[in-house]
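It is worth pausing here to work through a concrete case rather than discussing structure prediction in the abstract. The textbook approach is simple: state the sequence, then state the predicted structure, then interpret. We follow exactly that order.
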Amino acid sequence: MNTSLKSELKRKALHLTGLVVPALYILTDREFTLTFVATAFAVFVVLEPFRIIEELRDRIKLKLRLINPDVVTGIEVLERHVMDIEREHERLGVAAHIYFALASLIVVYFFTENVAIAAVTVATLGDAMAAIIGKNFGRHRFSNGKSLEGSLAYFLSALLVIYPLLGLKLAIAGALIGTLVEFYGLPPDDNFSNQVCVAFALYLFSLI
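Step two, the predicted structure:
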């Protein structure tokens, strides 16, 4: 397995932890899910400067080393894993998990339960499937580096997620919109735009 693919698999494995959000919504309720996502978002925002600014991390590690060197060793192992899966634009910019948490907060707050569950699940699972299938089996490449195989993997996984929740019409609409958003990587980040666009599309098409 090449290094690029290994890093992508590690990134997507971490990304799949986003399925905790729809799982919580199914097992608990809207209020608990909102509290969980809002708390996660707040923690991510507080910790973000330490991820970006190496000097801050070094200062903290220097103090911790005097108290417990083993903790510092653990932090440095975590740092290496994080750097291994970071995209280039995330090194000095906002990380994907912040965009993901913010989008989940918006989707759970503003949309109905089934729409929110569908949108977050599709954005999580569809993105992972597109990347894994695209990296391994992508033979028909487009100019942006995405592949036909990866896009089809996203579309089919989205279809399978949305259909039992909202029916065939909305499944086709949501899967198509999600596939296009993932393909074009709409700003500010696809971890944000995918969830929000899929949820909005499902809501609009439900009115037709």
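Step three, interpretation. The longest helix spans residues 113-137. The chain has a mean pLDDT of 84.
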